[in-house]
Amino acid sequence: MARGYSRDLRERLLQAVASGLSVVEVARITGVSESTIGRYKRKAAAGMSLEPGASPGGPRKIPSDQEDALRAQVAAHPDATLAEHCAHWAAAGYAVVSRATMSRALKRLGLTLKKRR
Questions:
Q1: Please, what is the end-to-end C-alpha distance for the chain in angstroms?
Q2: How far is Cα 91 from Cα 117, in angstroms, rounded to an integer?
Q3: Are 62 and 70 in contact (CB under 8 A)?
Q4: Cβ–Cβ < 8 Å for 19, 29
Q5: In whole angstroms, what is the distance from residue 94 CA to residue 54 CA?
Q6: How far apart are the C-alpha atoms of 17 and 36, rounded to whole Å?
Q7: For residues 77 and 80, what is the distance between their CA atoms, to the nearest angstrom?
Q8: Cβ atoms within 10 A of the Cβ of 114, count?
């Protein structure tokens, strides 16, 4: 997911506009949209902070400090389905997670679920 532009960049965009460049020129040079620069101008004029807001979403259900346990679980049950991995995960005392969450965690770790015939 993309993050907001840094405060430093936001301030430099506004400085460029204040130095005499038009919003259109600054947008063309930097690749930041005209509407975004206009929004920053309005925030600055209203005395609001130019700090980027918090990114949406919550913390991971399977945090990075539990990834070794997940790798061990997949090694112990290489033929398990996503649903079975979710059940094993919950039975091991970790948070109950959905199949989608388990799938994203496995993908993040580079693990695949290939099945034997």
A1: 37
A2: 26
A3: yes
A4: no
A5: 27
A6: 13
A7: 6
A8: 7
pLDDT tens readout for residues 60-71? 999 999 999 999
CA atoms of 102 and 106, how far apart (whole Å): 6
Q: What would the two tokens of residue 109 be? A: 């770790």
Q: How many CB atoms lie within 10 A of CB 69?
A: 14
Distance CA(24)–CA(34), nearest Å, equals: 6
Q: Write a three-state SS string for the chain.
A: CCCCCCHHHHHHHHHHHHCCCCHHHHHHHHCCCHHHHHHHHHHHHCCCCCCCCCCCCCCCCCCHHHHHHHHHHHHHCCCCCHHHHHHHHHHCCCCCCCHHHHHHHHHHCCCCCCCCC
**pLDDT tens, 32-89?**
999 999 999 999 999 999 999 887 788 899 999 999 999 999 999 988 999 999 999 9
What is the pLDDT, as a whole number, of residue 25? 96
